Amino acid sequence: MGATGAVGQQMKDQLEKRKFPIGNIKFLSSKRSAGTAIEFNGQSYTVEEATPDSFDGVDIALFSAGGSVSEKFAPEAVKRGAIVVDNTSAFRMNEEVPLVVPEVNKEALKSNSGVIANPNCSTIQMVCALQPLKERFGLNKIIVSTYQAVSGAGIDAINELKDQAADFDNAATAEAKVLPVKSAERHFPIAFNAVPQIDQFADNGFTLEEMKMINETKKIMNAQSLAVAATCVRLPVVTGHSESVYAEFDSAPTLEQVRDALRTAPGVILQDDPSKQEYPMPLMAAGKDEVFVGRIRQDLDNPNGYHLWIVSDNLIKGAALNSVQIAEALIEEQLI
Amino acid sequence: MGATGAVGQQMKDQLEKRKFPIGNIKFLSSKRSAGTAIEFNGQSYTVEEATPDSFDGVDIALFSAGGSVSEKFAPEAVKRGAIVVDNTSAFRMNEEVPLVVPEVNKEALKSNSGVIANPNCSTIQMVCALQPLKERFGLNKIIVSTYQAVSGAGIDAINELKDQAADFDNAATAEAKVLPVKSAERHFPIAFNAVPQIDQFADNGFTLEEMKMINETKKIMNAQSLAVAATCVRLPVVTGHSESVYAEFDSAPTLEQVRDALRTAPGVILQDDPSKQEYPMPLMAAGKDEVFVGRIRQDLDNPNGYHLWIVSDNLIKGAALNSVQIAEALIEEQLI
């Protein structure tokens, strides 16, 4: 559901690449995109307009077409026997809905009522990197500042950056209609800028994106007493979110212990050698499946504190890949 | 000294704009740039090659021509009776050299031996915003992640970004010769990227830029026990550094108390109204004299903790303006 969107296309690519066991597949969308042709595993499919009956006989439905579409169609799919893996924020904080990153909390899948939520992109990459450290050293505090790509705001945002970037000398007066938030009153140029707003503001002064990182992290890590703070910033980067993370552990591991924990962590690639200028960057992480971690340093004042730089493709592990991995885990755990 | 550089030109502009009391002025440079014509206060000057004797009869010498030039010529200028205001890192951590941001520690000027150091750009804007809060609420911890503009790396870095940004579709393979550090072995594209290296790496895994922020902040604020951590990141922004700062106070002020302290702080402009999407951005701070602060939020777990977003023009308050303000303070305090 949402097959023609940026994440929908990545989902299709991941299903192919990972040889997901498929009997039948259908590609659904809104009326507007129905009729589009899609190639999948060497065969051509036509995108169909979603109706409640589209989900008859479906085992797993991957949703990535916006919160309102999920709210309308996910219950219909569940009613018809499907398990929905939903990539929107519609159900993430519902108590009966598991919010899952398979590397972190696969066991949460067991108690589902038909809907599994896929977390926010910036949350996924952070918990992938921090979970192996939490398991070994205990974790009590996270302070994260993000450096987020425009592709998280869709294809219109990418085009807006492209248009603005083409006029280097007039960046400050560039036309802006999409970012920081399409539905917001004011829009600001993103090219050659850094905009400290992603999603709308909550009443407490944090943005909804920041609150997602805070609340989702606690839910996924099953750690309500974990202190989490986030500042989310949009950058003129096309794809690849970066995060400057300060993490405070219950003990004081050595740098090599932290590196070892990440070296063997599933889905994580350690890129951390200052002597070779080796560290992750979004331009190089784009298109890759893994979460990259580098710039690891023990805090100079608190031996329990570490600083890390975490980068991943926000459309892949941050969305499409994680959804497909949830579907794989459902099969693996015989929950389908 | 360094009259033809990016900061040198901004110094000239500030001297004009602020009607600095000048009897005679001379513009100095290396042999390479000597002979360039400069307009100042409606008169034309020719840039002269610096020699030790250039400083005969000079009261105040503003230096911004790189550390090695300062090391060579600053002692010569001091020997001839000048006070040197040095914008390089050459003398900043020398015990007998005051490191000054006039809004914060003007009194440190009094015990100088002829050289006053101008701090690093990213340090200046941060201490301007935090000093009024430190005075009222006490300050014990800072964790900062920076979003830094390429103009801090000079005109070559600006041109590199410009060239790379013109080829949107080939960003990942763009030619890079300057950033992240001209003298380093490896160079990476900056357009549509975020590079977590500014300056070379120290042995402890922090970069020299990060260590500058840590050590200079303690020296300027006269607070050796203040815990400071920094992660410095270069962005595809031309001018204007941004900083995501977590500050922990000795007490728990209300949001309005923090805003009030900043509203009345010298050189600071409060830009903080989420309901109007009002917050600082580098594209809008470029060309301005002030330090802009917004996105102020009390930490959700620690009432003594606050998150702030601090933006300023790295060439103006981060360099040229602060140097000129130091010179003004020397006159005002009758130290010249």
TrEMBL record, chains A, B:
Catalysed reaction equations from the record: L-aspartate 4-semialdehyde + phosphate + NADP(+) = 4-phospho-L-aspartate + NADPH + H(+)
Active site: 121 (acyl-thioester intermediate), 241 (proton acceptor)
Quaternary structure (record): Homodimer.
Keyword Heme: no
Membership in a protein family: Belongs to the aspartate-semialdehyde dehydrogenase family.
Binding positions for NADP(+) per the UniProt entry: 4-7, 32-33, 151-152, 314
Binding positions for phosphate per the UniProt entry: 92
Annotated metabolic or biological route of this protein: Amino-acid biosynthesis; L-lysine biosynthesis via DAP pathway; (S)-tetrahydrodipicolinate from L-aspartate: step 2/4; Amino-acid biosynthesis; L-methionine biosynthesis via de novo pathway; L-homoserine from L-aspartate: step 2/3; Amino-acid biosynthesis; L-threonine biosynthesis; L-threonine from L-aspartate: step 2/5
Name of the protein in its database record: Aspartate-semialdehyde dehydrogenase
Function (record text): Catalyzes the NADPH-dependent formation of L-aspartate-semialdehyde (L-ASA) by the reductive dephosphorylation of L-aspartyl-4-phosphate.
Record-linked Pfam families: Semialdhyde_dh, Semialdhyde_dhC
One MF annotation (Gene Ontology) recorded for this entry: aspartate-semialdehyde dehydrogenase activity
The EC number(s) this enzyme carries: 1.2.1.11
UniProt binding sites for substrate: 148, 234
Domain Semialdehyde dehydrogenase NAD-binding: 2-112
HAMAP family reported for this sequence: ASADH
Keyword tags: Amino-acid biosynthesis, Diaminopimelate biosynthesis, Lysine biosynthesis, Methionine biosynthesis, NADP, Oxidoreductase, Threonine biosynthesis
Organism: Planococcus dechangensis
InterPro entries given in the database record: Asp-semialdehyde_DH_CS, Asp_semialdehyde_DH, Asp_semialdehyde_DH_beta, NAD(P)-bd_dom_sf, Semialdehyde_DH_NAD-bd, Semialdhyde_DH_dimer_dom
